[in-house]
Automatic annotation (TrEMBL):
EC number: 1.1.1.25
Species of the source: Lutimaribacter marinistellae
Subunit structure: Homodimer.
Active-site residues per Swiss-Prot or TrEMBL entry: 70
Single Gene Ontology MF annotation: shikimate 3-dehydrogenase (NADP+) activity
Domain Quinate/shikimate 5-dehydrogenase/glutamyl-tRNA reductase, first and last residues per copy: 129-197
Keywords, comma-separated and alphabetical: Amino-acid biosynthesis, Aromatic amino acid biosynthesis, NADP, Oxidoreductase
Annotated protein name in UniProt: Shikimate dehydrogenase (NADP(+))
């Protein structure tokens, strides 16, 4: 018999109240006229596996996973995509009809799609990329840049050991540089990406020297609150091509929505407005 239940999806984090995902998915459900609900769930780490294993029985078709669960969810997922394995984290779970939990990571897809949309002439293979930071977000970015054909990915991080780990995981296209050198690295490169939390509302400012930024470099920031960070403002003034980070958040949500609710949503100005409401 066909399952006539309304499909449920959601986002699991701890805390989760700040998440923009419910606004994005609900906007798509309404604009596409689809039956479905998307629910934020605050789940403590010790309850994560029990809650996730219960959700399919309650009509859930999948969930997004956010901080602090993106790594730990891999310890009990039944199937893990190659991308999620390489990145070491998942942001999207699909609850399959046979009861298996499939874990994927769409952050890299969101990152690249946002860049291609915001800087259509950008060619990932045209030159080196500089990645500021080496946390979970940086792992998704480096993985996506390597897949897109970046010839050299220069990673710089306050804690050097995390950058070294990225190099050992992603191979010799990754070059590690000292955090104190960050200002010198950005001159004349093809792409600069901030994956640190610096510059975010409530966090310290990204204080690296930015006078090396050159016209033609594509500059993007994963921080999207504020939308125009000091990095992006300075880059714009220097004649760089600037892409804000909100689009990554929107695009990473697309594959999950399509799998859960059966239609591929578009990312447009109305989606941006819905996320910012
Ligand atoms: P995410 O999953 O969002 O990447 P994370 O794994 O906590 O979160 O990583 C945060 C990134 O911001 C790291 O690169 C971190 O540098 P460290 O590895 O040295 O912690 C960087 N970061 C956070 N606060 C910072 C600060 N005050 N100065 C420099 N880098 C900072």
């Amino acid at each position: 018999m066909t399952d006539m239940r309304i499909p449920l999806a959601g986002v699991i984090g701890h805390p989760v109240a700040h998440s923009k995902s419910p606004r994005i998915h609900r906007h798509w459900l309404v604009t596409l006229g689809l039956n479905g609900h998307y629910i934020p769930m605050d789940v403590a780490p010790e309850d994560l596996e029990t809650v996730i294993r219960t959700l399919p029985k309650a009509g859930f078709v999948g969930v997004n996973i956010t901080v602090p669960h993106k790594e730990s969810v891999l310890t009990f997922a039944d199937q893990i995509s190659d991308r999620a394995t390489l990145i070491g984290a998942a942001n999207t779970l699909i609850f399959r009809a046979d009861g298996k939990i499939h874990a994927d990571n769409t952050d890299g897809y969101g990152f690249i799609t946002n860049l291609k949309e915001g800087a259509p002439d950008w060619d990932p293979a045209a030159g080196p990329a500089v990645v500021l930071g080496a946390g979970g977000a940086a792992r998704a970015v480096v993985s996506a840049l390597a897949e897109a054909g970046a010839p050299e990915i220069i990673v710089t991080n306050r804690t050097r050991a995390r950058a070294d780990r990225l190099q050992s995981d992603f191979g010799n296209r990754v070059v590690v540089a000292d955090w104190v050198q960050a200002g010198n690295l950005i001159e004349g490169v093809n792409l600069v990406v901030n994956t640190t939390s610096l510059g975010m509302v409530g966090k310290p400012e990204l204080r690296i020297p930015l006078d090396g930024l050159s016209p033609g470099t594509v500059v993007t920031d994963l921080v999207y609150a504020p939308l125009k960070t000091r990095l992006l403002q300075t880059a714009e003034e220097a004649g760089c091509i600037v892409v804000d980070g909100l689009g990554m958040l929107l695009h990473q949500a697309v594959p999950g929505f399509e799998r859960w609710f059966g239609e591929r949503p578009v990312v447009d100005a109305a989606t941006r407005a819905a996320a910012l409401r």
